[in-house]
Write a structure and sequence with these properties.
It is built from 5 helices and 7 strands; from the N terminus they run E-H-H-E-E-H-E-E-E-H-E-H. Strands 1-2-3-5-4 form a 5-stranded antiparallel beta sheet, covered by helices on one side. A two-stranded antiparallel sheet has the order 6-7. The protein is globular, with a radius of gyration of 18 Å. The N and C termini lie far apart (60 Å). 28% of the residues are buried.
Length: 183
């Protein structure tokens, strides 16, 4: 029987070193691209930033390796970080002079949804990002922030009440798009 936290095409183990966070960010981006999703540079940047926050939290607070899993839910790109600590993360309010303590604030503000739950090996902390459907000939906008202020999102640990995912809408009509291309 395979180990529950084994390497796979969509999962990998990160050693318990903060120096490995950058490589983990790149591996997540590569695996997300491998899913065949239409990811622009901004979305890749968000993906890497949020991955870095969760992986850094995991290896820093557990001093143990973690497993990162990337998957497509059918609607969103989901990244899960599983570690051996069974203590769920508690968002903190960092002071302006603090060097740490803002990671979950960023996750709550930037992810479409996020959360944490206990699992057989410890806990799984995850985030999801909305990805525009490829093959459309119009630029789309998807919901990437919650309607509630970030402070309320942090208070609940999972973002509180969530609005429905906004349907993609064109950001420019045919005339505006043609005028922009001509310029």
């Amino acid at each position: 029987m395979p180990r529950p936290l084994e390497e796979s095409p969509h999962a990998f183990t990160v050693p318990a070193l903060v120096e490995e966070v950058a490589a983990a960010r790149d591996r997540v981006a590569d695996r997300a691209r491998g899913l065949g999703l239409d990811l622009d540079e901004e979305l890749i940047g968000d993906l890497k930033l949020l991955t870095g926050e969760l992986v850094a939290n995991s290896v820093t607070h557990t001093q143990a390796e973690c497993v990162v899993y990337v998957r497509w839910t059918g609607e969103r790109l989901r990244v899960e970080v599983t570690d051996v600590d069974s203590t769920l993360p508690v968002p903190t309010h960092a002071l302006s002079t603090d060097e740490n303590g803002r990671g979950l604030f960023l996750v709550a503000a930037m992810a479409t949804e996020w959360g944490s739950q206990l699992c057989a090996t410890g806990k799984k902390t995850w985030f999801e990002l909305a990805v525009p459907v490829s093959g459309e000939d119009t630029t789309t906008v998807t919901a990437s922030l919650r309607e509630a202020p970030a402070e309320l999102a942090l208070a609940s640990g999972e973002g509180g009440a969530r609005p429905a995912l906004v349907e993609p809408v064109p950001i420019a009509g045919e005339y505006a798009r043609a005028a922009h291309q001509a310029a």
